[in-house]
């Protein structure tokens, strides 16, 4: 699983975001998870 930290440009600045995707060339459907709880704990990144 590939994990990337990205910034999404917004009218008031940027929004920090994460992209998780499987390795390989196959296309997969996208999922957008919006939350207002802040950063996910680093323990969930592995």
Top keywords for this entry?
0% helix; 46 residues; single chain; mainly beta; globular
Number of strands: 2
Largest sheet, strands/sense/barrel = 2 strands, antiparallel
Order of SSEs? EE
- The secondary-structure class comes to mainly beta
Q: Give the DSSP E fraction (strand runs of 2 or more residues).
A: 35-45%
Distance between the termini: 9 Å
Query: Which regions have little confidence, pLDDT < 50, spanning 5+ residues?
Result: none
Counting H and I runs of at least 4 residues, what is the number of helices?
Answer: 0
Report mean pLDDT, rounded to a whole number.
Answer: 79
**Using only CA atoms, what is the Rg?**
12 Å
Strand order of the largest sheet: 1-2
Q: How much helix is in the residues?
A: under 10%
- Gross morphology is globular
Overview of the molecule:
It is a single chain. By secondary structure, this protein is mainly β. The protein contains no helices and two strands. It has strands at residues 2-10, 13-21. A two-stranded antiparallel ribbon has the order 1-2. It is globular. The mean pLDDT is 79.
